[in-house]
# Entry
Amino acid sequence: MIIKATTKKVLFLIPFIYLFIGIRPGFSQNNAIIVLTGSSDKQLSFAYGEIKKAAVDKGYSVKFSKTMDSESNNKILVKIISDSVSAVKIARSDYLRMPEHFGWQCYSVRIKKEGGETVLYILSGDKTGAMYGGLDIAEAIHLGTINNLSESDNRPYLERRGIKFNIPLDMRTPSYSDMSDAGQQNIPVIWEMEFWQQQFDEMARNRYNVISLWSENPFPTLVKIPEFPKIALNDVYRTKVKIADNFSHNGGGYLTSDMLKNYEVVKKISIDEKIAFWRKVMDYAHNRGIEVYWFTWNIFTYGIEGKYGINDRQDNDTTIAYFRAAVREMVLTYPGLNGIGITAGENMQGNKSKYSNEQWLWKTYGMGVRDALNKQPGRKVRLIHRFHQTNINEILDAFKTYPGTLDLSYKYSIAHMYSVPAPIYIKSYMNLFSPKLKTWLTVRNDDIYSFRWGNPTFARQYILSIPEPEKMVGFYMGSDGYILGRDFLGKDNILPRPLIIQKQWYSFMLWGRLSYDPYLKDNLFLKTIESKFKNTPSQSLMDGWSAASMVFPWVTRFCWGDIDIKWFPEACTSDKSFKGFYTVKDFMEVEPQPGSNISNVIRWAQYYRLNRPDSLISPIAAADTIAKYANLALINLKSLPQRKINSSDELDLTLGDIEAFATIGNYYAEKIKGACSLALYNFYGLKKDQDEAVQHLISAKSYWTKYAYIYSSQYKPALFNRIGFVNIPQLIEKTDQDINIAITWHPGIIKEYKKENIIYP
# Structure
């Protein structure tokens, strides 16, 4: 096999480097040759490296050569072309069907057979598309499907596909997620170049092309400002004070006097070295076709409070001058910065200040970018204004003279992407967006922190349900309640700790690949699972995994807590300032997710006994659906190897996650049914309904006990910044509380379904 890659600058002009891959003894295939150019382009070099690695992993012997001589009679020649002029020239000269798309990230696959030689062409208009085409080749070699490639024309369904990363830079410049175990553990991690290299490599493989880095005030850690020379921070600090679970959910108070008195230096590094580090990080991202954006919340003055008279007051002109200069220097310091995202909250004073929120944001971020662009004419800096705690008219008025692209950003599923696949919240805003004023979708996963998720049907449906894609810039996906750095929840002995994107490889593959092309066949994912877990029944694993992964989307539809502090399905809990653990009474009263078409339990109970017709899904039917998925997962597990407890093998850990999903699914099914029976008893006083409620809740407790065993065999208790400290085994006592609630319940405690004001005799 011969693979030949060309770019506009090197096409037909430089000597080729030939990479000979000979089949090792025992293989029946003919000898193969992969031919690469000497191109120094980093994106194409990455694709070449992936091709070579796939070949080596399949057992080929490899060597370089400068001649095309080969004893192989059966050859496949692959040409990768990365500019439209050369692609058109090749298509014409080789009598190929012309590519349909030459835009950003587009590529076409063309196939031509001549005698005993097959030529595979990757024709692209840019390097990113060429890289993606090369990655397709590497994947086909790895999966053993190289001879089954067919002609295709590929372009992104969603142009920008990103990761939302709350970044714990330093205790002095925190993110929203720092007040957690994962936040503290990952402070040293994000200063590792190896981490970012692995992160961006994985992102490119899965077709992500945006990294958004979120911090309350990153500037003291990232830039030097001539007007405020004493603000830039050397070194990286982490507190030695034990983090508590009583920090503000609005970002305030994250740097206390105790922290400043008791800290450790986790990395000795000057501000100049920090700047060099982040330039290198951004360069590496660009070398994988990834854009870089920094996001802030406002107004936070961590790392600068008290210096030069700066504080977080919106009418402080010195504070405004600082942020304007900081934004200017951020743009000037980092040529690899593609844009900045801003928030009109959580610490802004609105009409209480002489400057409105939007006036303040314009005076700082808008004018800061403008100042930088005056010094760097032609530079493009995209500004993303979150559609959060503000309104469209104020944004457009304040930023009407912004010298670049202005986008909006909307919380698409609020905090729970694993719920309904077509959230309804954006519908009333769609008329505000247009192909000229587009919006990003913030896709928040504050549902699943521990387990490996994977259901291609749900991901595909979610992506295809996004309304009017022509009005969308793209999305960024991530959590506020967890850090997408390295995983420290696992009890396994894997060192160094795996990246979240590596641990959750299947989930990230599904969301990334399907948002580039939602029409990808499931066979690609099946073959990938088969390759990942050799000698394992791959169809049973995929089917069980898919079924288990539908448990939380259905549970969260039934029990809807819109923001992250209101609902965490891994623990049936919320932050203690809201409800804490959801009891069976809470399950009777909670409202299902808007757009789920599921009935509230109290409403259902009133309709049920009066035999009233209802167009909504009953909570019993929802419980049966959850149980169906849970039991499908357990049935498929019977066809798979038995999980080894305390194993660090990825298959064992994946099987444990599937079993955990299924077991807590059965817990929720029983608890919902218990809530339904108790609601009937509440309204109609039949003892048999109370008895049924008690039995369902006893069954629920048995499932929670098993769930706690499975969970604790793989994961540690942990402090999460949005939910608090979570210890699954300790919550067994809460399931006893549910049983006691049912035993001591009296009819009439709940009077009526108040939302619709339905009153029945």
About this structure: The two ends are 80 Å apart (CA to CA).
